[in-house]
Amino acid sequence: MPTCKQCSQQFTIYPEDKAFYQGMSVPEPTHCPSCRQQRRMSWRNERTLYKRTCSATGKEIISMYPQETSFPVYDHSYFFSSQWDSLQYGRNFDFNRSFFEQFHDLLLIVPRMKNYSIGNENAEYGNLSSWNKNCYMLFEADNNEDCLYCEYSFRCKDVLDSSYAKGCELCYQCNDIVKCYNLWYSFNCKNCIDSYFLKNCTGCSDCFSCINLQNKQYYFFNEQLSREDYKKAMKNIDLHSHIGIQKALKAFLDFTKKHPHQYMNGFHNENCTGDYLNNSKNAHFCFNSSEICDSKYIYNSERIKDGYDIETYGGMEGSQLVYECQSVGRGSYNVAFGSNVYQNLLNARYCDICANAKNIFGCISVSHHQYCILNKQYSQKEYEVLVPKIIEHMKKTGEWGEFFPIKISPFSYNETIAQIYYPLAKKEALNKGYSWRDADKNSKNFKIQKTELNFYQKNNLPTPTKHPDQRYQERMALRNPQKLWSRNCMKCDKKIITSFAPDRPEIIYCKECYLSAVV
Which distant-in-sequence residues (6+ apart) come within 8 Å of 96 by Cβ? Predict the structure, then answer.
């Protein structure tokens, strides 16, 4: 078993892993899966936004990057225009220096787009979110309307403070919900309406504080009531004050611990491990993903075949043969060590913000080109001779097969999602050589948006007193971690791989035992 170069923990490389690495012509990893993920996450800023100006036009924009960056930051219209060319920054490869040093030099000067959001209407405050209308502070969320403070949410309307919502309307403070309407403070539910505090429920309506129910109505703490008695019980619940809501949430969470939970959330999977995984086959250690095949260590992705260590992916076209990427886009094939390589890449290595290109190596903001190295154009023959030489050089420097170092990320460590999943104190981060950005003055002040206030008043809800980031962190804390443990079903003793740690208080069942317990 190899030992991780970063955390010194041993980790396993299985025969199928070796076959994948050989097929991609990359060396076996020197970091454990968690340290590899932390490194990728340090290149992903989802939630930290700044007001600044476009470096080309002077227009005020909302960006992932503060005003004082060394590299230019362009509004989308200028970035995708013909008024500049990323190849003008091209340079020769210097075999007397390391690859990452030269890539970092390039990173400091090549223009970058302001964020990864397009096609929005009155929804400029967000990132990695597109085709939204009248929305505010959406992150990795597409095709929503009148939504605020949501993450990984798609095709929703009038949804606030929710994560992983799909096709929902009029929902608040929910996680992992699908096609729900008028649902509040609920988790892992499908097709539920007019209910509060539900978990693992499907097709339920007019239910309060329930778990593991299917197609039920007028249930109160999993007890069947008449319509009249249900209405009476609800009158005694205070859902209009912070104290009342917190009291109801605590009672609900305590109640759910007395009932069985399935070891893994998901459906239509074959030979899979992970959590919130659907319609997948031979997918292991995969989370919040769907239609994953013959892959491992995949997060927040869909339609990936033959992929390892992918942080985020989205798109109908799918991707194949992809490895160690932070956000790899649709239609990509044979891509490794990429950051925000967002669509239609072929045969690419060590690239950042590249799309619609093929046969590129060590490029930044390159699109519609081929046979480029460090943003310099070569002929096919020159490219095919030089790339193997660079790889041999990287093997000597210990760089080949490693993702971009955290130290050269364009973001400060605490701006990225690495700080959420792998938190560090400022001193600890600086001692490791990572950059850190102190919070701007008054950064924790927040405004209540007009549409947001209307939502609270219309639904008789108390106005939030916590910053949106704090609400997000508390909401995500109610989801299981992206980690797996080996333990046994607490009913039949069958061995299971689950995201519920052995010391958790919940009752954990295998799939068969859980289904027999669902009401």
Answer: none
